[in-house]
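[stage:ingest] chain + small molecule (zinc ion)
[stage:ingest] validated
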Amino acid sequence: MNAATPISQAEAGGAIVNGLSVDVEDWFQVGAFEGVIERDDWGSLTDRVDRNVRQILDMFDAAEAKATFFALGWVAQRHGGLMREIVLRGHELASHGWDHGRVFRMDRETFAADISRARQVLEDAAGVRVTGYRAPSFSIDQRTPWAFEVLAEQGYAYSSSVAPVAHDHYGWAEAPRFAFRPLAGSPLLEIPVTTAMFAGKRLAAGGGGFFRVIPYGFSRWAIRQVNCREGRPAIFYFHPWEIDPGQPRVAGAPLRSRLRHYTNLDRMAGKLRQLVREFAWGRMDLLAASEAARIDGEAAA
Ligand SMILES: [Zn+2]
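[stage:predict] done
[stage:export] tokens:
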């Protein structure tokens, strides 16, 4: 290549489209508050999810970014218009289960009923087929070998339900870091949330509290590592309540949970705008299709 030849996006590592995802749940549905807020009280609490998701849709439009919205069935039942709006704006609507029950606390039958009910409500609300699933709190791990079988039986194309890292209340540290087929003889794909390697260790780098609390530079470094050094797409996620400093405060929650939940809410929207501008982002279903093609190509080679 001579000096005048422009470096293509692919050569610069910029052509990789990363997976952008939003876990659509309200401020009172997070795992950190489950010991303080009763599920029966959810219906009487101030609803913030609609306005927050619409703000996110505007942010994505401004950056021309597409994403996948993993919505709770409980939310879809009450916000059918919002589900339709997500689809109308060109994003993928996928499932986050019914009411944020963690998979490792269910048995096979309960899980099958949970995801079936959620999917029905999502599909009825938005008039599209749902083929993607994300477990609440990344709760598919070594304790739930049946979970992938249930997802395959119900015809899901992919799951993004594993955090391949050690964490205090979730994580499957031994799982592959990139997309894999968890079941022999099934096309079902698992696409774990992103980790970055540093000094031989896996660091959580795909969003959540880490993104809000740690300076933006870390996320930029981590996604560049994954894109440019490893040549793979990154998977990033966040929640609508994370851009909402005006949400009601939960008294009585453990200090650690409150610190994790409320830190830097006022800075989150600005950080996200930078992130969606700085990298290329797309829907998880499209990413799943290209990852499946890559895995098949490697198997055939
Ligand atoms: Zn969630």
